[in-house]
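One-letter codes give the sequence; backbone shape is given numerically. An example follows:

. . .
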Amino acid sequence: MIQLHDKFFKPFISEKEIQQAVKRVADTIAADYRDTTPIFVGVLNGSFMFVSDFLKAYEYPCEVSFVKLSSYQGLTSTGIVETLLDLPENIEGRDVIILEDIIDTGRTLQELVHLFSNTNVKEFKIASLFYKSEVYNGEYAIDYFGLEIPDRFIVGYGLDYKELGRNFREVYQLNQKHMINLVLFGKPGAGKGTQAQFLKEQYNLKHISTGDVFRFNIKNGTELGNLAKSYIDKGDLVPDAVTIKMLEDEVGKNPDADGFIFDGFPRTAAQAEALDNFLESKDMKINATIALEANDEVLIARLLERGKVSGRSDDQDVDKIRNRFEEYSLKTAPLKNYYEDQNKFHSVNGIGSIEEITERLTKVIASL
């Protein structure tokens, strides 16, 4: 797995497979043009590696030139193709073969055909190393191609993501997974920790407890930890931006996770919106918010029992427990409305055995 900017990519096509494909294209074209001197026109920037290796494999007389077009920004095509470097001169009456790194929708190809439409070339053909047949519009014939590939965003061997990755000898594909991102709610004693552990193991999720993240950063004296501590020491609330940055770092540390459980954040509608914005910047989203609900008296009994083992004073005093419940209810009410408006709020009965509660959670996730 490699990271380029904010995206992760996994191996897709090996260097050996690429070189075999290049040789196939070169040999096929040589069979048609060995008795002439064609002009090969590479399409920059992506084709520079392909053109270089192609020319090494092509053992007959030829000339080479380049044009430069652009239609991609980030992961998607803009749909607007710009000509940045014009056609070579003296191509009248010549055999011209375009060398493209990849053909997908055909927008760039359309512009290439348009560029050559006003020239008097003898023959005009198109060769591409990679060919996404399932998304190609089929308007023009693809005369030669090395590898037919599915519609995946790829980098390496001249192809880039925001200008990174062109220098890789092999090709990587965007690591797109069906991620499950959850926000877990629950009053003290509702069993969030126990159920989060199950969800983490069952679905390969990373459990991000805001309290744990704060403690880690402060204990280890990280830049964010020191910043958070400076607010805490003054009795101020830590700004949401600092908390979000800590969560962002935690997400970045776990590229192989199939999703995340956010526990202890958000606590307000503003924080929920900030979390949505952060996840959207990573092409992610909250799939569901799950609230473990239980009768207060049942939870009080649980906490009092837990207090005998934990030694926590706030687990041993009924008044303190009720105050924590009241605080939870006040803070969670607007969050419930926020996620209900997005049809993402799920209430799960938190009374029963661990196994029974786990089964209820599993049904919610299965519905996603």
User: Anything to note?
Assistant: Residues 182-366 form a domain with the Rossmann fold fold (CATH 3.40.50.300). The CA atoms of residues 209 and 263 lie 5 Å apart. The chain has a mean pLDDT of 87.
